[in-house]
Amino acid sequence: MHKKVFVLMLAMAGCLSVCAQQTDRFPANYTKKEVMIPMRDGVKLFTAIYQPKSNAEKHPILMSRTPYSCAPYGADSFPSLKGYFQHYANEGYIIVFQDVRGRWMSEGVFQDVRPFNPNKTGAATDEAGDTYDTIDWLVKNLDNNNGNVGVLGISYPGFYSTMASLSGHPALKAVSPQAPVTDWFIGDDFHHNGAFMLMDAFDFYTSFGKPRPAPTTKEPTEYAYPTLDNYKFYLEAGALPDIARLMGDSIAFWKDLYAHPNYDAWWKARNVRPHLKQVKPAMLTVGGTFDAEDCFGAWATYQAIEKQNPGADNRLVMGPWYHGQWSTDDGTYLGHVKFGSNTSTWYQENIEVPFFNYYLKGKGPQPDISEATIFFTGENQWKKFPAWPPAEVQSRPVYLQPGGGLLFTAPAVQNSFTQYTSDPSKPVPYTEDVHHARTISYMTDDQRFASRRPDVLVFQTAVLEEDLTLAGPVVADLQVSISTTDADFVVKVIDVFPDDFSYGPDTVRLAHRRYISPTYPMGGYQMLVRGEIMRGRYRNSFETPVPFVPGRITPVKFTLPDVAHTFKKGHRLMIQVQSSWFPLADRNPQVFTDIYKAAKEAFRKSDIRIHHNAAHPSKILLPVIP
After folding, report:
1. Distance between CA atoms of 1 and 258, rounded to whole angstroms?
2. pTM for the structure as a whole
3. Confidence (pLDDT) at 441
4. Is 36 helix (H, G, I), strand (E, B) or coil?
């Protein structure tokens, strides 16, 4: 949840502060009131309620609970809803935003990803309980409501939406967790397979994590970076103990991160997936296949509900989006990759709004929303499936070969490997350009810069003679040996465009403060389709890490988040393997130690071999639709 994305999320939730002088239809047709809603333990939560002036019909309630502020504060100040929530204002919804417990103007003590308590009694609370109490107050106290409530939210508010689904309130009819924070150790935001996602975590918690001793409308200050080059900043900052000194001693969750380096009971309590049982509302889980923050959470939330609630009204939508892009008015491209249509507005008009209208307003026939509605890049088509992954998917191994080849047949040679040296003092950058903020477009970035480095291995197929469509999780199954006792492994699945590829003439566009140039050479573009990191020590267990034995060939097998992409005839499939992805992820010192306590002097180079021979074949298991 990068800070610049944090601002975008506020815009998506209709929460950017503007005054009542604005000319959009929202303040002209709505009234606003601010109330403190009491919870069962006596704590009161600040809630902004926007009600239609029209009493021609009873209105449903649509709520978003957020730790990011339900500003603008003041009964005469209205947010701009010129986009996402404008659909619901036009439909006459009662729109509710609430500061969650301990944030902004709400009372109480905030707890990050507060664990669900399935055995609440009396005044015991959790986020599901706070949601129940809020809904109960709303339906009993708001004039002219129709008794039906929906909840939605993106990212951290997506977590609160998931928790809402466990509230059990009978008025809650529909919930849409969107890019929901789900498991902060396995795959969302701050860890991927145990590797610490340093840049996002530091940038987020230096502001968001600051103590708030009393209710306030004042934003926390941001960290004053000495340089706008994030690679330079994090490299010169040093090891994680040095980063901790920059963070200071007041950020409680930062200290928790350091105190729990492994997937222990503390982390497991903050994984909501095991609790997603007896889910009663209609569920619409939404995410982006190129979401740099919570792509994992969307897939995982849908799958947990599906597995533990047979017959549940449970649906999944995944588009070709960065974090929250589906809520914007432009879903036509990301970075240099174009999608051929406005995927965001299509989703809003054909999926989400009809979903809530049906369940909360009883409007129209039941919408024709498939179990899984997934956008496939490459061919740039929406596809509908009765299950995800699709039943027809076959796991097909593609094998790394000597000389950088990539074939669907196992290697026959003996004692073959490719070696590189991973040097923590010169880690592989996650993107080519110099940036201050972590980019939203790196998930589709051109990987040619990485393929030219000696510490990045490249394996690719011949030119494809027919389309190759992947639909589901990708599994990396590497056979490795290293000269030290620990290392990370980054596997990237890449679509190599033909040398003569071009989207054709276009105009220069300004998008999210980044110019997209029509002259970028798309011929030979190496599009990142999916990349993921694995901290090698966790290859057997996230709970109990183990060192490598130097020189011993060892399997490292891990799952990458789902892919929905077609490699077109005439393209190539490429796999890259490397051992750093900086400063996206922290640097592994490449010795088996507590990385959160390891001084920079402990860091070592590691000679890493990826074996690709008959006895030790390294392969990537692809989810292929025949």
Report:
1. 19
2. 0.95
3. 96
4. strand
